[in-house]
């Protein structure tokens, strides 16, 4: 049985969580856009917030992940416009994950994750969803939530 943390990150919060989860034996699998974004500013936020709202798919670089039935997966997503980030929804639409064992970690800048929780529920995932607000700024809180 293997453990994976499949995640996306523009500005490092997801990477920080990946480094913490590595200590707990989760192999990080980072999703990357085919056309990477160089700078995250106002226009990027408007653009990708809009893409999240309209359920757009992204072109992702291929990843090396062959899941077995007993593998455990945590999905990590920033919150975009109160929703899951589009690289994550793209990944979820392209991979058949175990709905009973796959869990989620969401990392918004604020506290609200309402629409993303609805998305996760609608897709049929049953396991817990952890919300870690701004992990890079609140590192101790992040460690505590992850049980480190
Ligand atoms: C396109 C975009 C939209 C965002 N929308 C929200 C939002 O609706 N609510 C929120 O709390 N944070 C929002 N954020 C902030 C990110 O969710 C937050 O900073 C997250 O921790 C970033 O993770 P990362 O550093 O791994 O990319 C948004 C960021 C981006 C880039």
List the helices and strands and how they pair.
Blueprint lengths: L2 E5 L5 H11 L3 E4 L11 H12 L18 E9 L2 E2 L1 H9 L8 E5 L6 H9 L6 E3 L7 H7 L3
Parallel strand pairs: 1-2, 1-3, 3-5, 5-6
Antiparallel strand pairs: 3-4
The structure holds flavin mononucleotide.
The site of flavin mononucleotide has 21 residues, from helix 1, helix 2 and strand 3.
Description:
The protein has 148 residues and is α/β, with parallel strands linked by helices. It has a single domain, classed as Rossmann fold (3-Layer(aba) Sandwich). Helices cover 32% and strands 19% of the residues. It is built from five helices and six strands; from the N terminus they run E-H-E-H-E-E-H-E-H-E-H. Strands 1, 2, 3, 4, 5 and 6 form a six-stranded mixed sheet that branches. Strand 3 (72-80) and strand 4 (83-84) form a beta hairpin. The longest helix has 12 residues, at 42-53. It is globular. The structure holds flavin mononucleotide (FMN). Flavin mononucleotide (FMN) binds at residues 9-14, 40, 45, 48-49, 78-82, 107-110, 112, 134. Flavin mononucleotide is lined by residues 9-14, 40, 45, 48-49, 78-82, 107-110, 112, 134.
